[in-house]
Amino acid sequence: MAVAVVFGVSEWKLRRQYEAPLQALRTSAPPDLAEGERMALIVGCWNGCHGRRGEGGSEHIDGILRQTAPTLSEVLPLYTDEALARLIRYGVKRDGRSAVGMSSYAFWALGDQDLANIIAHLRKQQKTFTPRERTLDLSWRARLALTIGTWGVAAERVDRSRPRWGDLPQTNSFERGRYIATVTCTECHGLNFDGNELEHAPSLSRIAMYSPEQFREFMRTGKPIGGRDIPNMRWVVEAPFSDAEIDGMYQFLRVHHRIER
Ligand code: HEC
What's the whole-number mean pLDDT along residues 91-118? Predict the structure, then answer.
């Protein structure tokens, strides 16, 4: 009986339709392809789940799931810009179902211009990669977590009440840092930067132990203070953050965690 309920509820969440608006991106400038590539590397469309250059990859969360992150040059042509923006921000696929494992909760804050830049950059890519076969294996633990709500499909995990920082002013390094940290670090460290058990990522209140120089060093080398290796964060080293963005994230994370100077 319990098994049937868990299967039934999790299957319903995987198959049901999710409401989300299809909206044109409002931009004031033509897409900036170089900035699109930079942001694609920062938020991880490239050099993340979908492989180094969008060739596709396989994602794996211990005891939870094993799945394909598809080849981007294969799936992008199936989407209009509006549908792609909806998928990225709301986690809703073109058939109205939810994506699974996509970090839309972090991408929610991406501004229209950044999203347009990223999409234009990704669309430039020719179909040079052999498409990955699509698979999704969910464990019973994952189905149970879906049923009781300790884990969710992508569309469920988006908090639509949160600000879209990317479309709000970024006139100083604090505001820029808040935006960049929101669209990148929350992916693993939780929407409130207070840690995520599933990803084994600690609360970013650990920033209290870092001087600005040590934080810069960490973001550039992937080596935290003490010099341990953090395999899950190697991508950080390759993310093309500017110095001002790193300093801004430092300022923002300290204020967010109410750390005295
Ligand atoms: C892909 C997942 C992932 C992303 C994205 C990520 N982190 Fe982490 N981070 C981790 C994990 C996992 C650990 C803990 C690893 C450990 O302790 O071995 C960690 C640890 C840390 C620590 C603690 C280091 C210490 O001293 O122990 C800090 C600080 C940190 N991350 C900052 C950031 C910032 C800032 C960002 C955004 C720019 C970020 N992380 C993005 C996965 C991630």
Answer: 97
For residue 80, the CA-to-ligand 1 centroid distance in Å is 34
> Does the C-beta of 249 come closer than 6 Å to ligand 1?
yes
Tell me the pLDDT tens digit for each residue of 58-68.
Answer: 988 888 899 99
Q: How far apart are the first and last CA of the chain?
A: 56
Residue 189 C-alpha to ligand 1 middle, in angstroms? 7
The per-residue pLDDT for range 55-100, each reduced to its tens digit, is 999 988 888 899 999 999 999 999 999 999 999 999 999 999 999 9
Q: How far is the CA of 201 from the centre of ligand 1 (A)?
A: 6
Pair of tokens at residue 253 = 């994370």
Q: Which two tokens stand for residue 69?
A: 């992150």
At 44, list the tokens.
Answer: 């991880």
Instruction: Quick: pLDDT tens for 243-257.
Output: 999 999 999 999 999
When pLDDT is cut at 50, 70 and 90, the band that residue 261 belongs to is: low
| Ligand 1 atom 25 nearest Cα | 224
Yes or no: say if 44 and 104 are a contact pair by the CB < 8 Å rule: no
What gap in Å lies between CA 112 and CA 67, rounded to an integer? 29
- State if residue 254 touches ligand 1 by the CB under 6 angstroms criterion: no
The finding on whether 201 has its CB within 6 A of some atom of ligand 1 is: yes
pLDDT of 232 > 80? The answer is no
Evaluate: CB of 202 within 6 angstroms of ligand 1.
yes
Q: Is any ligand 1 atom within 6 A of the Cβ of residue 232? A: yes
Q: Where do we find the tokens 């396989």? A: 58
